[in-house]
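Weekly puzzle thread! Below is a chain. First person to post its structure in token form gets bragging rights.
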Amino acid sequence: MFSKKEIATYYNHTLMHYKVSWQLKKSKGLHYGLWYKDTKTLHQAIQNTNKKVGSFVRKSNDFSALDAGCGVGGSAIYLAENYNCKVSGITLSPAQYRQGLEYVNEAGLNEMIDLSVQDYTATDFKDESFDLVFAIESYCHADEKKDVYDEAFRLLKPGGYLVVIDSIKTEKGKLPKNRKTIEWLLHRWAIADLDDGPETYKKLNDAGFENANIEDLTKNARKSVNRIYRRAFWGLITIPLYTIIFPTKYHFSRRHPESGWALHKCFRKELLQYVCISAKKPE
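Winning reply:
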């Protein structure tokens, strides 16, 4: 289990890593991205993920969305620019929040996007505030995933959708013999554990959602997994110097590059599945 402070610290400490190795200023996204046959660049892949979320946006003059784990605001900016919807973005990381404000201001979208530092399992928004709640590679940090679903259900208007793009465990990933490999990755990303498919369906149903669906996007994320793996070799070289310049007690900051190796192994051994989870709040 990781505290909210530890999760925030992970993103505070690793923000520079994403700036250096993940084209953060250009794409403004910390996620893998989705690669298709016509996808040529990482920037396009990251935008494909935003398009995936955008496919759940309905044409409306007052459509509103919540980015539950907004990073530096890239997906919020994309939705506001391309779908003309208002977006609230929340993050636990003050560093991400400050960077996000800069990007939103640069895009001239201050009237369309509102960012704040909040916990997505206990927000201060009113009931039925949003038409869409989405989380891209952020819900994984919740110790109990149903807490995310319960809060999203409260926040959604009737007929609204929850969309989660993230990893879940496969049947192989649940085996005790593979637990050490899973933890090698998760504990370097301040993640306690992941659910599997059946657990996900049950918790969504228990929260009150209907029409739950899990779409397998593993093959579309694999190119980014390989990219992270290659960059991990360069990151490992910098660990001693990084530890001297930025002394910290948190192992996920000191050993962050190792996560690239762990991620590659988890996908190669088919312990994880990258998915789009969607579910509807009844009318």
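Puzzle host: Confirmed. Bonus trivia for everyone else. Residues 218-245 form the longest helix (28 residues).
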